[in-house]
Amino acid sequence: MDCPCPNKLFLFLLSWIATLFSIKHHGPVNMGTTTNVGLNYGLLGDNLPSPSDVISLYKSIGITKIRIFDPNVEVLNALRGHHEIELTVGIKDQDLAALAASEEAVKGWFATNIEPYLADVNITFITVGNEVIPGLIGPQVLPVMQSLTNLVKSKSLTISVTTVVAMSNLGQSYPPSAGMFTPQSREQLVPVLKFLSQARTPILVNIYPYFAYASNPVNISIEYATFNAKTVVVEDGAMQYTNMFDAIFDAFVWAMEKEGVNDVSMVVSETGWPSAGNGNLTTPEIAAMYNGNFVKHVRSGKGTPKRPNCSVTGFIFATFNENQKPAGTEEHFGLYEPTDLKPIYKLF
Description:
This protein is an alpha/beta fold. Helix content is 36%, strand content 15%. Helix 6 (141-154) links the parallel strand 4 (123-130) and strand 5. It starts with 7 loop residues before the first helix and ends in a 32-residue tail after the last strand.
C-alpha cells in the first residue's frame, strides 16, 4: 500500500468540525494559522509562566496542536473555550499498572481527567504511556488502550487512543529498507500496532536525528541531520534520502510492514534539537536550522520517500527550557525562555 493514511479524512473532518464550532461560539478563526506543526508543552520547571499565558503564546504564533504529558488540571482549565487548539493528553506511566488491571479503574481515570473537559476542550488524542515499549511496563499498554478505546466508542466520542514510542524499538534502521524491530519490540509493540490497524488510529513516534548525529558526528554530516543537504546522501534501492528524519521515519514504516502492518499512519509526537548543552553540536543557530527546516518539511505537505503521498504531522519538543529536566541538553530543547517568554531563536 503506497500511502496508508487511514484516518486522514477523519482527522481533517474532526479539525474542521472543531473550527466551525469555534467560529460559531467564539468568533472567526484565522485558518491561515492552522498547520500540521504542534508543540509539546512540558511542565518540568519551577519558573514556568501561567498556563493562560502559554495558551496566549500559542495563539499568537498560530499553534493549533499541543501535547501535554499528563492531564494537568491547570492546563486543561486554561484551554476551556479554545476549541481551535487540538489537545493530545498523556496518561502517566506510573498509572498504567492499575489501569491495566481494571476496566473500572480506566472508567474512573476517564471520569476524573477527561470527562469534565469534553464540552469545552478539544481533546483529540489520549496517549497510553510515553516510550514504555519496549520495557518492563510495556505489556500494560495494550489492555489500557483496549479498555479506553471501548469506553470512548461507547460514548460516541471522536478521541483517538494510542501510545508514544521511541526509535529504540528498531534493532536495525540503516538503510531504511532494513528497518526491523527488536525481539522485545516485536513481542510488545506488534500487538499494539495490529490493534491500531483495526481501530484506524495512528501510532505516535519520537524521532530525533540530533541523537544519531551527536553519537557519530564524524560520519554523519550536519547537513543531512538538519534537512540542509543539497544532494542525495543515502540511496536505498529506488528511494533517495537527503535528510535523516525521513530515513528514520521510513525505517519504522519498513519495520511495521515486515510484521504485516501496512496501514497504520504515523504522527511524530516529538522531534527537536537542543540549543545548548553539548558544545558546538548544540547552538541556537543549529537548533533554529533543524526546527525551521522541520516546519518547512511539514508545511510543504510532502511525505517521505516510502510514503510520498502522506503529509507529515509532528510536534516539536519543546515549548520551554525546563530547569527541572536532567542537566545537559535535556534542559535546552525549548523554543522559549520561561521567565519572559522570549524566543531563544526565531521560529514562528
